[in-house]
């Protein structure tokens, strides 16, 4: 009878006592570094995208320059501006807002909304009347009140009337007119610097 043929066995080398399949499973040091680098790059890219989305659609950091909103806001105060709130609602009387300067939209100002579309505004010896009712503006200190006259005027549709809290030192709707609602960037939500005077608006 013909003899049986033995199967061919080829030995696989074993590295330092490590099982053969363990050698195949563990990536090299270079592969580990590459994988970690890719993971970091993905994380950084994701963080950059989130930051852009937050700044574009959600919140913005701003700095006050000048004294037009004193004493409520002082020069060099740091603010957080909520840009999302006016995507789902309208600016309201009394809101402190960040807006594009209507005469030069490359600049931005911080002012307070005094009247909304459809309101009647007049100023008599510095006293502001909205719809013939004196504005409750006790936040204005006596030395910052003005003595000017303005109006009366009806705020047209799609516009707001804004003023600075330092009435003697503010360029606002009394001088350059109403602000288109589309120029209002967002509501000043928080003063976070200086820390001792931090507050939510």
Number of discrete domains: 1
Estimate the strand proportion. 25-35%
What is the strand tally? 12
Name of the top-level CATH class: Mainly Beta
List low-confidence stretches: 1-10
Classification by helices and strands: alpha+beta
What is the H/E string?
HHEEHEEEEEEEHEEE
Oligomer state of the chains in this structure: single chain
Major sheet attributes: 8 strands, antiparallel
Approximate shape = elongated
Mean pLDDT: 86
- Taking the alpha carbons of the first and last residues, their distance comes to 102 Å
Topology of this structure?
Layout: H1 20-25, H2 29-58, E1 59-63, E2 78-82, H3 85-88, E3 96-100, E4 108-115, E5 120-124, E6 127-130, E7 133-134, E8 150-154, E9 159-163, H4 173-176, E10 179-180, E11 184-193, E12 199-200
Account of the 3D structure:
This protein is of the alpha+beta class and about 200 residues long. The chain has one domain (about 60-200): Umud Fragment, subunit A (Ribbon), CATH 2.10.109. The protein has 4 helices and 12 strands, in the order ααββαβββββββαβββ. A hairpin with a 2-residue loop joins strand 5 and strand 6 (about 125-130). The radius of gyration is 32 Å and the shape is elongated. It starts with 19 loop residues before the first helix and ends with a strand.
Question: What's this, in brief?
Answer:
With 201 residues, the chain is α+β, with helices and mostly antiparallel strands. It has four helices and twelve strands, in the order ααββαβββββββαβββ.
